[in-house]
């Protein structure tokens, strides 16, 4: 019988986070502070505890579309350089406190230009906030590295411009590109020019797919758009036949397994949007056993009232995971990160393996 991991073990376990949205992870009090200064009057509550509860309740509707509507509030209080810097800095500190040693945090720069900021100013403010947070965390004895992914939105038409920003800021705090937003009716192939540009310029990219839409969305992302990683990818389970004694993989599932394409899974978020029924049956546990390259992620910490500690706790309890299992997903994460192999090795050996060896 596998013993449940202790809270101390989970807290101390080094974690890698590849799928976290900056505008989905604000501290409630920060939102209130920004709203009071900027004159934003539409927050559902100006009490931090009540506001936190509202986000979780509003995001637990069971549909991705209603979940996404809540972002209007967070985006509205991230429209100046000062606001963006504070949010990015606090993001780093919150992740460091969670035991995260490496993270790629994403955001769509077009969303934060309502008051006149350019995309470049948004990106530079975000990176500045990350740098401040990393410096502050290091002084507190918590070494963490944060890189930025730039998102384009499926329903809009600025993906090519965002792709040029990824190349422009490559090596300057930005490591890749993502397509986010509603899947239904907005296939990733609408943005094929952006993906081609990124490949031609040696830039990395991931694609949200198979979160609320079917296997075909994942197939387009992998086979037509050349995705290196898949955001969520939980619907890939539909390409596996469990009716017999042994699981039988369809051609897409087999391809993703063989190529070890990383699946950026976020259990709590998937439960909220109706993509999974429970932690104990979430796709991550089954697919890890089958050898898929799965990673554990938060997606939107505010909307899910979650953290990497909570995600690890829930899945460890649901599937009786051991420290070795948490080590596996951390290793999957760092070796799927959009940084060089030498950088991956350095972080893995010094900050992940070395710590797990002592736990």
Based on the model shown, name its key terms.
359 residues; two-stranded antiparallel ribbon; globular
Secondary structure layout:
Blueprint lengths: L6 H6 L2 E7 L6 H11 L9 H11 L5 H6 L1 H6 L4 H17 L2 E8 L11 H21 L5 E9 L5 H10 L5 E7 L11 H9 L3 E6 L5 H10 L4 E4 L7 E2 L6 E2 L1 H9 L2 E4 L1 H6 L10 H7 L4 E3 L4 H4 L3 H12 L3 H12 L6 H16 L3
Keywords: Hydrolase, Metal-binding, Zinc
Enzyme class: hydrolase
GO biological process, one term: adenosine catabolic process
Poorly predicted parts: none
Q: Count of helical segments? A: 17
CATH topological fold name: TIM Barrel
Q: Termini, distance in Å?
A: 20 Å
Indicate the structural class. Answer: alpha/beta
The largest sheet is: 8 strands, parallel
Give the integer mean of the pLDDT values: 95
* Binned strand content: 5-15%
Can you describe this structure?
The chain contains 17 helices and ten strands. The protein is α/β, with parallel strands linked by helices and 359 residues long. Helices cover 48% and strands 14% of the residues. The chain has helices spanning 7-12, 28-38, 48-58, 64-69, 71-76, 81-97, 119-139, 159-168, 192-200, 215-224, 251-259, 267-272, 283-289, 301-304, 308-319, 323-334, 341-356; strands at 15-21, 100-107, 145-153, 174-180, 204-209, 229-232, 240-241, 248-249, 262-265, 294-296. An eight-stranded parallel sheet has the order 1-2-3-4-5-6-9-10. Strands 7-8 form a two-stranded antiparallel sheet. It has one domain (7-356): Metal-dependent hydrolases (TIM Barrel), CATH 3.20.20. Helix 6 packs parallel to helix 7 (119-139), helix 8 (159-168) packs parallel to helix 9 (192-200) and helix 16 packs antiparallel against helix 17 (341-356). Keywords: Hydrolase, Metal-binding, Zinc. Its EC number is 3.5.4.4. It is an enzyme of class 3 (hydrolase). Pfam families: A_deaminase (PF00962).
